[in-house]
Amino acid sequence: QVQLEESGGDLVQPGGSLRLSCAASGSIFSIYIMNWYRQAPGKQRELVATIGINGRTNYADSVKGRFTISRDNAKNTVYLQMNSLKPEDTAVYYCKADNAITKADYWGQGTQVTVSS
């Protein structure tokens, strides 16, 4: 069992940067594989980035070179640093925790990112 609380979503201009945070509570954070998803209105939810227990990362092609996922186990927090933002990045961003042992998954509430001039 883990509860996730996201923050950092905002309105930002194209080319700008934003840092999303997802704080976990209620369990041992280090055993969870952490993910960021996003969903734009009328679109399917898509996986943006993943970071494993030992820090291995994967990214969607659309964000490679611009986004960086990281985790701080001491703070029970996963981050998504977003640079060179484009209007196409506009979406609700969700974090998801996957228990590496039980395979159970948990979703955050989502945070709105809007990229517009």
List the helices and strands and how they pair.
Elements: E1 3-7, E2 11-12, E3 18-25, E4 32-39, E5 46-51, E6 57-59, E7 67-72, E8 77-82, E9 91-99, E10 105-107, E11 111-115
Parallel strand pairs: 2-11
Antiparallel strand pairs: 1-3, 3-8, 4-5, 4-9, 5-6, 7-8, 9-10, 9-11
Describe this structure in words.
With 117 residues, the protein is an all-beta fold. It has strands at 3-7, 11-12, 18-25, 32-39, 46-51, 57-59, 67-72, 77-82, 91-99, 105-107, 111-115. The strands form two sheets. Strands 2, 4, 5, 6, 9, 10 and 11 form a seven-stranded mixed beta sheet that branches. It has a four-stranded antiparallel beta sheet with strand order 1-3-8-7, with no helix packed on it. A hairpin with a 6-residue loop joins strand 4 (32-39) and strand 5 (46-51). It starts with a strand and ends with a strand. The mean pLDDT is 95.
Class by SSE composition: mainly beta
Tell me the strand percentage band: over 45%
- Continuous helix count: 0
| Rough outline | globular
What is the string of SSEs from the N terminus onward? EEEEEEEEEEE
Alpha-carbon Rg, integer = 14 Å
- Largest sheet geometry: 7 strands, mixed
Helix content: under 10%
Total number of strands: 11
Q: Overall pLDDT, averaged?
A: 95
Distance between the termini: 40 Å
Uncertain residue segments: none
